[in-house]
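Sanity check

After download, print the first record. It should look like this:
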Amino acid sequence: MDKNLNWDKHEEFLRKYLPLKKMLSSEPIVVVLHGHLITEHYLDEYIVINKLKGDIALFDLLRLEFVKKSELVKDNFPENIKTSLTLINKIRRDFAHDLDAKIDLKRIQQLVNVQRTQGLLENIEDEKFEKLPKEIQNNVFFGMSCLCTAAYIAGLIDEVETGRRPTGKS
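Expected structure tokens:
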């Protein structure tokens, strides 16, 4: 875990956006789209604040595909965040191209493992959680992984805005 990162900002972010109740009662597509949009919002903000868009106009940046935005930041993020972005997008893409899509268990497990390397999602598997239906567990894991990834990016944005980290350096 990055000891220099503003983890208070992460906690504030998670309290604000953690839609656990919504995750428990929603269809997987709602969780996937919601989580992807939150992640993409902070990815956009990071690109703009760090001036990584080059000659791309702001309007054009917002129209870029998620994968292209991820490529713009690839040199600025640690490997686990890049992997999280890739997996979040792959899961979202599954739903965009298959009306009967389910959250892929293999990808969820990869995403959870990546999050745990960052010291996140460690205490989520208690006895009560294990008794929930698998679809709800997958919703929670995906939603939490999106929020943790977005919170990490939000923490970096905060550090640039407060001057604790120079622009473009993560």
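If your output differs, re-run the checksum step. Summary of this record's structure: The CA atoms of residues 77 and 165 lie 13 Å apart.
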